[in-house]
Task: structure prediction
Amino acid sequence: MKKLTKIDYDSLEHFWETCGNKETLILPFDSASAEFKTIKISAFKNGYLLSVKSLYEVEATKISQYSSHKESSRKTVPESEDQKDEVFETIQGFEKYHSPLCMKEILALMSSDRAVNIWFSGPSGCGKTTAARYIAATLERKLYKINGDGGTTANSFFGANTVVIDKETKENKIVFSDGIAVKAMQEGLDENGNICGSPGILFVDEAASLSPGVGIALNSILETRSPVREITLSEDNGRIVKSHPGFVIILAGNTNGLGASSSSQQQYSAQRRALDVSMIQRITATFRFGYDKKAESEIINSNILDFETASKFMEFKDCIRKAMKDGEILTPFSTTKVIDICDSFKMFCLQNDNFTALANAVTCCYLESILPDEASVADELFRVFFGSKATDLVKKDYENYDYI
Result:
């Protein structure tokens, strides 16, 4: 625990040099004062993020430093000079997480004094949800996750009256149950609304699928005029709920909320419709995610230990992605799918040679789950690199089964 006494430039510069990776700081003024802004700016410039624990106490966490991953002792796929310095994070639980280039900007916004709403846009399985989990782990904040699919209602976010059994009278009674957004807003506050811990993060996955009515209802908590957001719960006798000043909302979708704007986005049928403009205008910043080639290379090399098989699989993956861009294949060949194939390969190679094991993994994890025309293109690409189609290498019992 360290005590701040001076806030002039030179004193602050020296102060951060003496701090470790995580420190609890005692402030000479309350965290709602104008002087605190000076401290936060100085902290961020020196690589620290501050989270308020109480009125005069904050926690300083050093932003993770990039570190080169350890090279495998086996022979790996050759890398270009600019790829040798792989950057994987060391946050607990994310020891092999390769953060996107925009992560520093996202963390900077998360540590600002204003209320922010962030949108993650990108194809299926590219790491949007993992990024939200990583941010929560880095900042040591609780992540409240909800899926914005068609079954999600405004009550899911804000709450509703429910019938429960009274423990004393054993009779039914009606009580109001807070929704996930209300719980996230109040994270880090005590029952009187005073700051007692770190703020929560509300993560709305598949946000582009939200129904128009739910989107409009969310506008009340997406308002960013003040760091403290406020909503009125009419069903709970007009109860007013105020958020922690550090409360942040992250929304994620395969589109940016404006509807499908390309052929590759048309496949996300639930997200083709554009959200209301009033909701989109409340988004502070949008960050576009993609499939991380360096992370995928690390995944493949650490799971497929044979150099030739790993090399050919990476080339096959790149060609599938090109076919996706050209419109020949619409079903995503995502980073998640690469992980599924690698995990399956490790199991299948115990009983087969490497090429056959990979053919089985590609077939059951990808080819069998896409349209026949797409599977035909992907299978032909597999033949180009491995000499045979994946489906030809997979054993099938045509004598006893009809594959229709």
Observations:
- The longest helix spans residues 307-325.
- The CA atoms of residues 182 and 203 lie 13 Å apart.
- Residues 64-90, 268-272 have pLDDT under 50 and may be disordered.
